[in-house]
């Protein structure tokens, strides 16, 4: 089933064209890896999916689709506990508060539910951000550089968490990342962006050899 149908989406910041005629169809149960250099338009595309910017073209959502998101650093209240932060967001979304303890367990924060947010590490914040993105059982989750700023073990932990969430729930995801190992292990469909366009798309099963070499061949200087 098609969850999201993006057709001819373009977006400019002033005279700077950030997205150019992007088409993308997102299907149920698939994980899309969004790759591209800094400034290629990945975050802007994810924001267009959410209707959070002034793009042209069409973004059609399947009826009743809930979209969870972890885009940039999510805002949480430092003086509230992890549980209170999630409950506050659940109230804002109108989703059941009873979901919160299970979600904290699912992201590995069950034993830390009463810790104040201001006392958490970046890895814990990303876990909490993922839990927040899962409130209300979304059909699609957007993760924008979910391991940004983490150390190698933190990157591995978050990657494994995302894989576990995906395999347990079967949720469709769009994950943007500069970390090719992460994308290679998570995505089943790869989208390469350059200067606001999707210049190449392929199934992960089509990747032969090293993803870094493929990335350079598609997106490197002179490609
Ligand atoms: N609010 C804004 N005002 C002006 N320009 C913006 C704004 N937001 C983004 N841009 C510009 O749009 C372009 C695309 O930015 P975007 O954040 O979508 O790229 P990205 O591929 O996500 O990059 P990165 O990998 O660095 O996160 C960049 O050149 C950026 O400077």
TrEMBL record:
Keyword hit for Thylakoid: no
Segments forming domain ABC transporter: 4-220
Keyword Transport: yes
Organism, scientific name: Streptomonospora nanhaiensis
Superkingdom of origin organism: Bacteria
UniProt family annotation: Belongs to the ABC transporter superfamily.
Keywords: ATP-binding, Nucleotide-binding, Transport
Pfam family, one: ABC_tran
Entry protein name: ATP-binding cassette domain-containing protein
PANTHER family in UniProt: ABC TRANSPORTER, ATP-BINDING PROTEIN
Transmembrane segments: none
InterPro entries: AAA+_ATPase, ABC_transporter-like_ATP-bd, P-loop_NTPase
GO molecular function annotation: ATP binding
């Amino acid at each position: 089933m098609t969850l999201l149908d993006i057709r001819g989406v373009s977006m400019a910041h002033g005279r700077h064209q950030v997205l150019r005629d992007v088409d993308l169809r997102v299907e149920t149960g698939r994980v899309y890896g969004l790759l591209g250099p800094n400034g290629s338009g990945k975050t802007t595309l994810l924001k267009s999916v959410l209707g959070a910017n002034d793009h042209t073209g069409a973004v059609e959502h399947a009826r009743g689709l809930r979209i969870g998101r972890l885009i940039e650093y999510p805002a949480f209240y430092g003086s509230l506990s992890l549980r209170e932060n999630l409950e506050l967001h659940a109230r804002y979304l109108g989703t059941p508060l009873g979901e919160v303890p299970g979600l904290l367990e699912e992201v590995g924060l069950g034993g830390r539910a009463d810790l104040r947010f201001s006392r958490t590490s970046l890895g814990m914040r990303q876990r909490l951000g993922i839990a927040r993105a899962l409130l209300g059982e979304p059909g699609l989750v957007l993760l924008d550089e979910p391991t940004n700023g983490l150390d190698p073990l933190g990157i591995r932990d978050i990657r494994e968490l995302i894989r576990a969430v995906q395999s347990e729930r079967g949720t469709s995801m769009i994950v943007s990342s500069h970390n090719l190992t992460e994308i290679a292990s998570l995505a089943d469909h790869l989208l390469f962006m350059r200067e606001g366009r999707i210049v190449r798309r392929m199934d992960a099963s089509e990747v032969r050899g090293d993803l870094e070499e493929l990335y350079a061949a598609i997106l490197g200087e002179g490609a």
